[in-house]
Amino acid sequence: MEYRDLPEAWRQVLGAVLGGAVAWQAPEEVAEALNWGVEATTDHLAALDAAGWLEVWERPAGPAVTLSALGAARLGVHLVEVGPDQRPCWSPIGEPEPPAPRARGVCRDARAALL
User: Fold this and answer.
1) Among residues of the chain, what percentage have pLDDT more than 70?
2) What is the model's pLDDT at position 112?
């Protein structure tokens, strides 16, 4: 099943997973991003998991969802590390990689480094 053939609710859920601050999210975070109830969101997450689009990870803090390898391939995205904390996020394949964080106290300009 291709992305364009998915029900609208599934596309919205996948969009929320893709747009998260980190590559995996708790069902409650996905529900909050969509402004939906947790139960309805969980139903859609379970259906997407059964269809192979998502993976569910069990964590001590509770379950988290992320794209499966198949889902990422279907959507044309891959993981990149973003920001100084190098958090993994989804990014379209072919987009430039985010710049590596610069070390603190390092100057770009040689004259400034002499100071």
Assistant:
1) 83
2) 57
Pairing label, strands 64-67, 54-57: antiparallel
What single-letter amino acid sits at 102?
Answer: R
pLDDT in tens, 3-18: 788 999 999 999 999 9
Residues β-bridged to residue 92: 77
Task: Residue 65: name the closest of 4, 10, 8 by CA.
Answer: 10
Question: Does 53 have pLDDT greater than 70?
Answer: yes
State phi, psi for 31 to the nearest 5 degrees. Answer: -60, -40
Q: 96 CB contacts (<8 Å, ≥6 apart)?
A: none
Token duo for residue 104? 């603190």
Burial 58-90 (b: 16+ CB within 10 A, else e): eeeeeebbbbbeebbebbebbebebeeeeeebb
Question: d(Cα 47, Cα 68) in Å, to the nearest integer?
Answer: 13
Q: Tell me the β-bridge partners of 38.
A: none
